Amino acid sequence: MTDQPRRRLVLASQSPARLNLLRQAGLTPEVLVSGVDEDAVTAPTPADLALALAEAKASVVSAKPEVKGALVIGCDSVLDLDGEALGKPADQEEATARWKAMRGRAGTLQTGHCIYDTLTGRYVSGVASTVVRFGEPTDEEIAAYVASGEPLYVAGAFTLDGRSAPFIEGIDGDHGNVIGISLPLVRKLLARLGVGITELWAPAQA
Question: Which of 3, 39, 48, 76 is labelled catalytic?
Answer without folding.
Answer: 76
